[in-house]
Amino acid sequence: MRVAYPVCVDHAVFLMAAALLALERIGYACIWHRPEWFRALCVDHGLRNPVEVLQLLFCGFKALQASIFLAWCFYFGAKTGWPENWLAPAGWLGAILMGVGQTLNVSVFLRLGRVGVFYGNRLGREIEWREGFPYSLLAHPQYVGTVLTIWGFFLLARHPYGDWFALPLLETVYYTLGAWGERLPERVSG
To answer: What is the domain extent for residue 27?
Structure first.
């Protein structure tokens, strides 16, 4: 018989993680909806071309995201110990979700290339529209792939403890809002 673990999330830690994880989505939303502002910012500060700057931001955001996830695991792991489910069904499901998620992410990079992934079409570059896998399956395969990877990681690292779903659920909301925000109509300058 498996022991059920109560939901136990330190609210201050959750709010700090939520605020830090929101930086990525807010940053991308600003760049997506104000690409001319981002291009001008890059030029005004003598930075590389905007696609390269966005790629650097992506790396920084992913490092921040990974740091928050690991800090979460260490913070709550110190109280409950590491999960024993690496070979249990939750562990296998986590590994499968991570594999599918990373397959989607790699497929996006292979399909669009670096310039396409990093908003080249929004930042003044001509990008040929690509169809086929993974876009034949999903409108936002990179977002879905990232969310699946996050759920898989937390199934492996924190399940069945009561905090295991908090950050994956939060990130699901953030990425869903990001996908929705990219579909909003362009704002008319006036």
So the answer is: 11-182
Name the residue with tokens 């490092």. 63
- The percentage of the chain sitting over the pLDDT mark of 70, rounded to a whole number, equals 88
From 181, 176, 174, select the one nearest 21 (Cα to Cα).
174
CB count in 10 Å sphere of residue 46: 6
Does 190 have pLDDT greater than 70? no
Using DSSP's 3-state secondary structure scheme, residue 116 falls into helix
pLDDT at 129 over 50: yes
SS3 117: helix
* pTM score of the predicted model: 0.89
Q: How many domains does the chain have?
A: 1
What does the block give as tokens for 141? 């395969």
187 located within any domain: no
Residue 189 inside a domain? The answer is: no
